[in-house]
Amino acid sequence: EVQLVESGGGLVQPGGSLRLSCAASGYTFDDCAMIWVRQAPGKGLEWVSAVSWNGGITYYAESMKGRFTISRDNGKKTLYLQMNSLKSEDTDVYFCEVGGVRGQGTQVIVSS
Question: Whole-angstrom Cα distance, residue 108 to residue 112?
Answer without folding.
Answer: 13
